[in-house]
Input
Amino acid sequence: MRLTTRIKRSKQMIRMVRPVELTTSDLIYPIFVREDGKKFEIASMKGQDYFSLEDAVTTCKKTIELGIPAVMVFGVLKEKDADGSTALQKNGFHPRVFRKLKKELGDKLVLISNLCLCDYTADEFCVYTKKGKVLNEKTAEMLGKIAVVHAEAGADVVAPAAMCDGQVRHIRSALDREGFEDVPVMTYVKTDSCLFQPFFEAMTLSKTPRSGVDSSTFRTDIINEKMFMQKVDLDVSEGADIVIVKPALTNLDLILRVRQEHPTIPIAAYQVSGEYAMIKLLGENGHLDEDVLLLESLKSIKRAGADMILTYSALEAAKLLKGKA
Ligand SMILES: [Zn+2]
Output
């Protein structure tokens, strides 16, 4: 008799037949470090705090203790300027963060630098624009220069988030030219999404974050798989070492597609701020068990083909996976 229930009879057997498993090694924790040194809860992302540099070190130590191999660093500056030129200061805030974390933590934690113009420019656009048009080459060239500053300061991996064409090519050649051939490029490929909104609010210095930006001119149309894969193909051909699919929840099929089309490229998926907020809210309102939903969502991302997952819930997830929560 054919029965599918035989191997589901015991919990051990269920474990034994799993083709993939979610572990703490899969997790990457994104952290927000403030130049003004203030520590408080991020209003748009309840449960997540901004850190001072000192707090960031403490949190990174916790991250290591929980078995998580990497953090993604977001720097929140006190001031931004028109062209984002402070990004190139060797003693700017971002390099100071990498230097400090590298000094305190050595190679126990992989430091990933989120590389984007919006961290530095007053208009908080991810790209340079002229009359509404994306200036690909100018943006990519600047990202290459910033990548060198971050690598010099101790960033182990650089992750260009601007979604401009040529970003990987410019960054790769800038890093190679300056002797950082061994620093990988982890490129973001994003669909246009409202799920980024709580993050924008967390990173912005203005009351109306990124108003006037038409992000559909540089991110991809959510319904168009071909448009997404075209960008993945370009970035891989330019030398990307890792591809980040962002957001995760709405793009599980695209994670699988990248895996099928580029089977040798490691894939990261970013469970973004909107996904984080949805899980938190459903739990807080008592509609369902937040911990169960969190693990379910992460397991579905892993099953879809992600080798690593960026999530604001990394610390909670690691505790749950270790059976200590
Ligand atoms: Zn950006």
Residues 116, 118, 126, 161-162 surround zinc ion (CB under 6 Å). The first strand starts at residue 27 and ends at 34. The chain has a mean pLDDT of 95. The chain has one domain: 21-321.
